[in-house]
Each structure stands twice: as C-alpha cells, then as structure tokens.
Amino acid sequence: MASERSAVGGPPPEPGRPARRRSRQALRRLYAPLLAFLVTSAAFCSAWALRGTFPFGDTGRALNDQANQYVPFHRALWDLVHGQAAGDLLFTWRGGFGQQFLSDYYTYLGNPVSWLTVLVPRAHVDLAVFLVTPLTMGLAAALMAVYLGKLVPGPWWQRGVLGACYGLCGWALSDASYIPMWLWGLVALPMLGIAVEWCLEERRWPSVAVLVALAWYGNFYTAMMATMAACVLLAIRLITRDMESGARLRAVWRAATAAAVGIMLTLPLLLPSFLSSGAAQPTEASSFTPQRIEVFLTGMLPATHLWGGRPRLYIASLGLILAGSFLLNTAIARRTRLVWGAAIVLVAASFQFPPTQYVWHGLAVPNGNPYREAFVFSGMLVILAWLALAHRPRPLHLALTAALLVVATFVLRHTNDFGGYTWAAVLGGGGVSLLALLLLGMGEKRRVLVPVAAALMVGVVFAESTLAAVNADSRRARERWATPAATSNRSITNHFDAVRQVDGWPTYRTDSGAPQTSYNDALALRAEGPQYYSSYLPEATYKALEPLGYGFKNDGRTFFGADNPVLDAIFSIGARVRPGDTANSWTGTRFPAPPLVTVRTAPFTSPNPPDSVYAHQENVLGAAVYDVPEVTRTGTDTAQTYTARCTPGSELFWYSPALYGTVVTDGTRRPIEDKVTGVMGLGPVPASGKVEVTVETQTRAFAPRSPVGCLDRPKLTAAVAHLTATGATKVTAGGHSIEATLPRGASGTAVFAMTDVPGWQCTAGDATATPASFHGLVSLPVTPSTGKVACTFTPRGLTPGLTAGALSLLALLSVTVTSRRRRGAGG
Question: Which helix (H) or strand (E) holds 511?
C-alpha cells in the first residue's frame, strides 16, 4: 500500500495529469493570437461586405497591380505547381518572349500564405489571392499578440485586442491591403521582435536564424524594413532591460550572427533578384519630398485616408489612447518611458528626413507611396499601448490622452482632404475606448465589469477598423489608378479557352491578343506573347522590343502586344486570339510561322529609312517586305493630316509613339495612346494608292519622320516560307532550356526567337558557344557540321547564392546539433 502513496503521504498523482495540464496551458497560449487573428480577418472581410466588393458583391476587388501582376503571377504559380506551366521556377516562356521567373517569384509570390492559391481550382485563383490579405493580416496580428506577451505578461484577451490594432493599422488597410507580398512585412516585424527577445534570453539561436530567414523569404523589401525596426527594438531593450554588460554583448553577437545566417539562407533567391534588379530596364528616379507637418500628423489620426501618397500611420483609437498615456504612467520605469518615447519620436522623424528615408527603402527612391515603412511606426505605437495597459493606466491619464486626441483632430481638421470618417473614429471609437478602459480599471474591485470592458474593447476595435477599411476603399476609389478591374468573368473564361484551342507551343507561339484583361495576360491565359509586366523586365528586352514597334509603359517595364504579321514572323507567333462576333466571345486563328530557331545565311540591311520602325523589323526578319513612303504633313499642331502613296492592296500600318489622341482613316476612328499603342494596322491601301491619316491630339506633338509602312503580304509570305524551310526541323523547350535540330548542312547564324537577356549559356553541336546579340535576340554561329544548337538559362547569382545558402544551412544544422548534445550531456 505504501507504494501507492506519494512521498508526502497523499494519494498518488493521477496518471496523465501533468500532460493534460501542459495541454491546457498550450491551449491557453493560443487564445490571444486566435482572438487577434479572428478580429483582424473578420473586420477586413466585413469591410468588403459593406462595400459590396467581390466576392460579397459585384464591385471589383482587384486594384492596380493586383489585377495586372499579382493575380496573373499567382495563376502562373498554380500552373507551375500543377505541371501546366511553359517554364519552371527559373524561367517562363509565357510573356516577354521568355523571361527569368525566379526573381519574380521571390518578389511577387514569396508570401507563404500565397501558396494557398494552389489548393483551389485555377478558375478561383483570384478569389484565393484576395483572401491572402485578411489571412496575412490576421497572422501578423496573432504574432504581435504573442510578442507583446514576451515583453510584459498580461491577460490574453488584452494582448489579442492590441494585436488586432496592429494587424488593422493604417498601412495595412490603406496602402498594402491589395499587395499580398508586402503584407509579409507586417508579419515579419513581430516575428523578428520575438527573435530579439530570444537573443536577450540567450537561447534558441537556431530558431532566431530561422525566423530571420522566414522574414526574408517572404519579401525582402518589407523584411529589410522590419529588420531595421528589429534593430531599433533590440537597442531599446538593451538599454531598458536590467542586464550585465557581458550579457548585452552576447545578445548583440547572437542577434548579429543569427541575422547574418538567416539572411544568407535566402541568398539563392536574394542574390539573383539583386542582380536582376541591376539588369532591369531603368525607371525615371523621383525625389523624396516630405509631407508638411500637419499632413504627417493627420496621418496618425484613426480612419484617415488622405489623397495620394500621404503617410498612413494610424492605429485604432483604443491603441492611440493607451499609447498616449504611456509617458504619463508612473508605474513604468522612468528610463523605459524616456527611451521608448525618444525612440518612437526619432523613428517618426526619420520618415521625414530624406537620408534616413532612403535608408528605410534600401537606398532607393520608392516608386509610389514614399511611406512604405509606416507599419514600423504603427507597430511601435501598439507596443507602447501594451506597456501602458499592462501597467494599469490611471483614469485621469487616459482621459487626458483622449482629450488630446480630440483637440488634435480639431486642430488638424483643415488639413487638405481631411475626411469625416476621422471624426467618427475619434469621437465614437475614442469615446467607447475610453469607457472600456475606465470600466476595466473599475473591474479590479467589481470583477463583473471586466467582461463588459473586454466586449467593448473587442467590439470597438472591430467596428472602428471596419469603418477605417471601408473609408480607405471608398476614398482610394477616387484615384484613377485604383479603379477595380475584373479578374474573372465569362469573357476571361472564354478568352482562356480560345487560347488553349490554338495552342501549339513549342512549335509556335500563341498571342492572346487584345483587348488585354491585364498587363500579364500571357501568364494569366497561358499564352506566349510579348505581354509582360515586371519590375525585373530586363533592359535587354526593352532594347530588343522597343525598336520593333511594340507598345510599352512604366518606363519600359511593361510591354504590350502588337497585331503585326511581321512581328509575328520574327517571334514565331503562329496563332492569335481576337474578340468574336458576339459578346464575351473569342476566336483563335492559326497561320504559318517560322520555327523558334531560324538560320540566317547572310547579313541583311533594310533599304527603307534606317530610323523607321519598319526598317528595324525588316533587319530582324531578314527580308524587305514594306514600302515606306515619304509623308507630307498638313494641318495644325493638334489636328494633323499625314498623306502618302502606297501600292494599292498592300496593308497600311501606322506608328506614332509621341501622339495621344485619335487616328482617323476612311472615316474609322481608332484611339492611340502614344508609346502604349505601338505599331498598329489601319486596313488595306485603297485602289487609288493615296493614304491619308488624320491624327487628333490635345497636346502639341508629331509623328516620326516615317510613320507609315505599307506591307506587301506576298513578300512576307515568301520570307516566312524561306525561314521555315531553312530553319530548325525540330524544336524542344524545357523549363529553362531550348534545343533545336538544324537542317543538314545549315551554315550561318542560328537566331533564337527570344531576347538576349543575361543568363543564357549555349552549345553549338558538342561545343560550348557564347551567345551573341542579333538585333537583341539570342544567336549562335553555326557550320554545316553543327547539327544541333541548345541554350540553357541560369539566373545570374544562383550558383553563388546556392553555395552561400548551403554553407549557412550547414552552420545552422551544426549549431543545432551541438546545442542538443550539450543539453543532453548536461541533463
């Protein structure tokens, strides 16, 4: 019997009780992050429902690059995972006539939540992309709730509410809600904050390195900002935490080494992306102009959304009132209050000072909203709010802060574009927040008030943030760039089906045609045309396509298609899709096209004016197929008529990259949008041979010296037949490679219908061959004994990146194994 009693004489412990206790404790630890996740995701989705946006209504959801880049790239990811991509992780044959894909993946698809899009049918990828936003925001809120608990312990529901304040900050609602990859920075900040705490505790070094790697794998741009913020947090904690000097040095060493290893783990993606960025088509650099102080301060008021690229720094009123009471809370050590207060002021000031603003953005000028690091400030506000709440702020301090918020709103009400939603948030949300905090303070004596205060705090953050999200959506819709675009409907489905019906890759390319649904229709519709929009579109691609008359925008980082048979022949386009005769219908048409690899036996120089787009096309084609006549211009600066004479029955083409307005021929009016339109067909030349093109513009601009080209179709047909007869007899394309079998005895220059972007390595026969540029296309010299040519694309920096990543992984594993052995020996 004695064996059945404990050492102190009591009953023996119930079997499994410690395990159940640990399970309950683990479950309780999930309460705070779960509450933060649910409030954040539900508030954001509720704003969708109130606005009647897809999927809760007919209003479009896709804004700007969400429609043009993110949805198409996620559809490309779906194709890649399901084995239906023309390409692989390194390269895509869809868009831009073949482009690198690794950097695009890292930049646009790195958010781990984005992988949920591959789990749905392809037709619903766009809906899954939209859901990435509330899920990522919810995850960020959950991690913030965990991080706050590591700073100071406190009730789970309070941490959950303030975590939601962070997840629903102004940056997330107003700036990044449609940018899934940037939102990973919102996750990275609290994740790196947790890593900082582990460094201070001198434990979990491998886990710190893994968290750094996770932050940087998701999106290097916002991860860089979050990492800088983590450095600020580490400095603050080193100053405010009671530690020995040796412990401080060890914490810094652990943080530095773990960060270095974590970032190096991402070098297989980071280094190629960095080099791709350097080789990308340059854009016009802008300068940073700080906003006026009243505009900057207005951006801190809840539910504000000022016009244009203004800072969105706010969090919900509950968090603002608590953060404002932080400096007044004498329960917090004076040194802690001074250091945190000084830090947040300096961070805010750094957003307004150009040199430090450039540092936040990686020494680059942002192309768009210049306050992309605003989530860092909002996160610090939430931290101050939690420190104040955990130390039981006094009612008087809370009331003073709430009054200061009202006064600040009154003073700033004349700021340009100040909105009425801010008053509703300040007076309504602020009033309820103050009431909830006062009830919470009274709950120390009357416990029944605590649940009431909790319900009010959860409810006010949910309601105010929903209002802020609705306001952000409605006020942003005033701006032309934010007009929602359709990403799925009957027309898009029929367009996709029409492309599939005429697909012939790699025998020939299929152009998805116009009008385009997005700038990346080739990716979205599984075509192989020139349409491509990426921050990494190489300068080499721009230099190859721009002289040929392809339309472009965004300083050359976005290219459009051109319904031009000469260009089709150059790039082996053998099928094109056009709108059908009935609404929402599309029809695909096949036509003869040379193979993707052709052989040129001798150099060719066009007899037409060398500076004309038509001469450039002929030089690449290797045959004269255009008549480029002299043109006479009459009329005014804004209504010009261009007259020329061509062979009757030939096909008239027009090119005027400086003109924006309307082209009129034979009573038919067609819009032109300067560089976006590119070379365009105007129909057959009349029997008289006289060509008149009238251009109506709103600004003073003129067509180039040779805007008119008249295509001789029989000559083009003969040129296509010759290129086909002398070109490759067989072409195979792998994920990032292409191989062609040449006709017996072929000699001259093998020209690949792909742009000479950095990264191609080729062979001719059994020998390695250095690719040369043939008017911007990849080419190789061949002799009668060559037989086969092949090229493989490897992103620059991939090999050293993989090497560095492998070494970092080895270091991480070594430290992990050594630590476990030491713990085992010590135990």
Answer: strand 509-511
